[in-house]
Automatic annotation (TrEMBL), chains A, B:
<feature type="domain" description="Peptidase M20 dimerisation">
    <location>
        <begin position="206"/>
        <end position="355"/>
    </location>
</feature>
<dbReference type="InterPro" id="IPR051458">
    <property type="entry name" value="Cyt/Met_Dipeptidase"/>
</dbReference>
<keyword id="KW-0378">Hydrolase</keyword>
<keyword id="KW-0645">Protease</keyword>
<dbReference type="InterPro" id="IPR002933">
    <property type="entry name" value="Peptidase_M20"/>
</dbReference>
<dbReference type="InterPro" id="IPR011650">
    <property type="entry name" value="Peptidase_M20_dimer"/>
</dbReference>
<dbReference type="GO" id="GO:0006508">
    <property type="term" value="P:proteolysis"/>
</dbReference>
<dbReference type="Pfam" id="PF07687">
    <property type="entry name" value="M20_dimer"/>
</dbReference>
<protein>
    <submittedName>
        <fullName>Acetylornithine deacetylase/Succinyl-diaminopimelate desuccinylase</fullName>
    </submittedName>
</protein>
<keyword id="KW-0479">Metal-binding</keyword>
<dbReference type="GO" id="GO:0008233">
    <property type="term" value="F:peptidase activity"/>
</dbReference>
<dbReference type="GO" id="GO:0046872">
    <property type="term" value="F:metal ion binding"/>
</dbReference>
<dbReference type="Pfam" id="PF01546">
    <property type="entry name" value="Peptidase_M20"/>
</dbReference>
Length: 458, 458
């Protein structure tokens, strides 16, 4: 009964909820680029003010990087910690956006209304689903449903450098019974999903140096070592074309096969392979040939090249043999893969393949995080699964996830806190890409879903 | 006697000659980048005015690209056509320059005074050696030594798109007995050199497209085809690591071995392999293992990668699988290699290696030119060789050259004009690189050398 009033309030408040989200989306809080440092501050201030309007004791906490936002509200029943991040990915290549990434708009599309703009899905839109659910609850009941700690980060897209020290320093303040995280997607349109495992992440970057200076390809073309050619050789050596496997020695240490039982579940969780591949222009999967698309995405590790550059890339041509070539790498980790051990293996692989007169430098400021598996035996998972099934009129499923949410591992290792990941994004949201969007249905039903979950947990 | 007066005049006029060169170097006439279109006009205007000050009937000739400068002066004896180019290479990476590339300065270095700045060596400094020789001659004799046509181009560094139509349209106006070209270097410091053969050039550029849009490496890492990884695979497939040869089928068609007699000459021409490699940080040659460094540079073809880029190259990291990857190529051609046929072979090589879901687009606006061999049996070559030997107190030599000067081929095919290439640059001039320089000795003795050659030819 009281849940119905909260749900009704949510429906009626949608225009205002949308306005609030648009306001937040207009703040270009790109965390990877120092040029947007002030905007990250602005986004944090905006969230502090919004939480305060809910009667939450909220404040901005400075870090060496971008600030955290922490808010507390007291109450009976379980103590929930809700996590989201207010920072967003860079927007390049800007020319591929159909509009200003930070001038969000509600658009009609063949699959329904969408909220278009950077961060609409990852993660501002998802973060606000929980906040709006709390707002509606408060409007109906005068209080929030239980004791809640709000914890918003501003460095998720840049490796969360300040997260570990902050968690360690505020261990007591951030203690709770369970963490709720809204930063994941649904396995398929309309299929409510709880992520039961996440891949970990390793980031690295190297620069190859050949000649001391850029050279003229007429004077040195032939005798001259070209670092771009060397980079291609080394990057290609990372892979075995036959099997699609990574060829770095020891890369698969700590990787486990998916149990048959879980594999069966996944095969029936509503994942639409054709839609998943087709929507981005693929006719087939391109990973390890011995594994299904779902396993390649959720249960197998990767070594991905995220950036490659060197020489001349301007208008026209330049007959140059450049001095340097650059490469950005990320690996997705599964099972018990150890990021630090893997970093050493990759660096050794490159070191072992350097030609005479070729040297390599590594960026040593990049983070790594292990994969994590959720404790779905906890009763909150079944309660949430039921609540989601009710809202979406479709059996909610436990899924794997290809992405990485390092905070989940740190909640466990530092705060001894289990996390439950519920998100409403769709695979076609184009997060980290031009023209990112969040379905209005994801936003609306997402808010309603949290209201139902809060009701079920309290 | 009168030659001595001209040489004396040159020595005495050096400060003014240097001021004039500095003026020309301050004009950022980068031809490959449309942003500098007006500066190319300014450089052409400057040259027209300077030639007119010598009593030359000079004018700027517009083209679809950057203008040509043509000047005529009448006289007895042979009819010489002098060619140089006033355009320069781009300056990136700008951060590697010790000063503004277009704020030239005279610097003291361990190997003597140098003129530092973009274009100081390639080709403004070299072009002005001939103009200053004419100026001194005129000051002493009241006239220039013979009938001379001056022909300055502004698109040499961008593939000379307007050159062929211009030569065809002005075939009669540009006819002469022989062309003199000052755009080459000396085989070794202090060793006067006449280039007897040049490599040709083929330029091409391609873009690989994988997914329709940039992808999140968490959502698609594994099943997703990554065009950066594909680009590395394809670029690596261009080469045979064992032999150092290019692995494109039919690449070496039209390549001839160097005759033993010529090889012996080259081996004794004063080329210092250790200096040539060591000055840029190489401990050994990196080309075809079956050939000497000199052959790799002068007599063997190359397939060089001048630019590679795709994905994220900004500050921090971005977990992206990009939609596109880009590659700029130039080939140096020798013997009878046909640029058009070679272009087809390279494109077929790439086409044959595309994975499913990977497509390629080629830039079709890039030029090619064949290699050329000079007609050193003409008497002018021996006269010039003697004049150079006198100036440098060192036997002048006929050398090969790794660079490409397409205009030489077009002079022959369109104007039926033989060319003689005499230049005073040094291998360490860092042309096409940051901190380009031209030795003051090259400039001074270069001017004196042209005076001696003019005297010898008339």
């Amino acid at each position: 009964m009281s849940l119905d009033s909260v749900l009704a309030r949510i429906d009626q408040e949608m225009p205002q909820a949308l306005d609030r989200l648009m306001e937040l989306l207009r703040i270009p809080s790109i965390s990877t680029d120092p040029a947007f440092k002030d905007d990250c501050q602005t986004a944090a201030d905006w969230l502090v003010a919004d939480l305060q309007s809910l009667g939450v004791d909220a404040s901005k906490r400075e870090t060496p990087g971008h600030p955290m936002v922490v808010g507390h509200v007291d109450g009976d029943g379980p103590h929930l910690l809700f996590y989201g991040h207010y920072d967003v990915q860079p927007v390049d290549p800007l020319e591929l956006w159909d509009r200003d990434p930070f001038d969000p708009v509600l658009e009609d599309t063949p699959t329904g209304k969408v909220i278009r703009g950077r961060g609409s899905s990852d993660d501002k839109g998802q973060l606000m689903t929980f906040v709006e659910a709390c707002r509606a609850w408060k409007a109906v009941h005068g209080t929030l449903p239980c004791k809640i700690t709000f914890f918003f980060e501003g460095e998720e897209e840049s490796g969360s450098p300040s997260l570990i020290p902050f968690l360690e320093e505020h261990k007591d303040e951030l203690s709770a019974d369970i963490a709720l995280v809204c930063d994941t997607s649904m396995v398929s349109r309309g299929v409510p999903s709880i992520a039961s495992q996440l891949r970990g992440m390793l980031k690295d970057e190297f620069t190859l140096t050949g000649p001391r200076i850029d050279l003229h390809s007429g004077h040195y073309g032939g005798p001259g070592l070209n670092p771009l050619r060397e980079l291609a050789r080394i990057v290609d050596s990372f892979y075995d074309a036959e099997t699609g496997r990574v060829a770095v020695e020891g890369f698969y240490e700590g990787v486990h096969e998916v149990p048959d039982e879980q594999l069966r579940q996944w095969q029936n969780c509503g994942f639409d392979e054709g839609d998943y591949l087709g929507t981005v222009g693929y006719s087939q999967p391109h990973g390890e040939k011995a594994y299904s698309t779902l396993e390649q995405q959720w249960a197998r590790p990767t070594l991905e090249i995220n950036g490659l550059w060197g020489g001349y890339n301007g208008v026209g041509s330049k007959t140059v043999i450049p001095s340097k070539a650059h490469c950005k790498i990320t690996c997705r980790l599964v099972g018990d893969m150890d990021p630090d051990a893997l970093r050493d293996k990759i660096r050794k692989h490159v070191q072992d393949r350097l030609s005479p007169d070729l040297s390599v430098e590594w960026d040593n400021d990049l983070e790594g995080s292990r994969a994590s598996v959720m404790n779905i035996a906890r009763p909150e998972f079944e309660s949430a699964r039921q609540a989601l099934s009710d809202e979406w009129n479709r059996e909610a499923v436990f899924t794997g996830m290809g992405g990485s949410i390092p905070v989940v591992g740190f909640f466990k290792s530092i705060l001894e806190l289990d996390a439950m990941l519920v998100g409403y994004a769709n695979e076609d949201d184009q997060i980290h890409s031009p023209n990112e969007k969040y379905d209005l249905e994801s936003f609306h039903k997402g808010i309603r879903s949290w209201a139902r979950i809060l009701d079920a947990l309290t």
